[in-house]
Amino acid sequence: MQKLYHGSNKKFGSIPEEIGNLINLTILNADKNYLTGVIPTSIGKLQRLRALELNSNRLSGLLPSSLGNLTLLYHLDMRDNNLEGNIPTSLRNCDNLKILDLSDNKLSGSLPEDVIGHFNQLTALYLQQNSFTGSIPADVGQLKNLNELLVSDNNFSGEIPRELGSCSGLEYLDMARNSFQGNIPCP
What we know:
mainly beta
């Protein structure tokens, strides 16, 4: 099996550890269900995965560091869950990401240095409605293809990085309801 679409099925329960046995999967979509529990670390065995969409469930716990094994991933959507903790630094290995949506969770801590800038292909970064702290890393300026950056409704603070002005394709920027200081740099 290469593609598994199981979204909008009112599915209850947890994601089984055996999901890691489906090593030929390129797309895994189980969004808009009632899935609970943690994301199993075995998900990192799905090294052919290009799209992982587990959004709009009731998943909890940490983002597994094994997500960093999914180096072909271009779409990671975990929005609207109850995920906690930090963004794992291993995610930097997913340098083919075009869309990263971690919005509307309970994620916290600062954005890891030297991770965001690795996503050279990234067009959309959605981190709004979490509990992130600290500042936006300067390496955000390396995201030349970025069109949308949404970081509203967090606990970010500090200066808006001037490197953000290097994101010449940026069309939509939402930094509302944080504690940023300074001016928004223009490209």
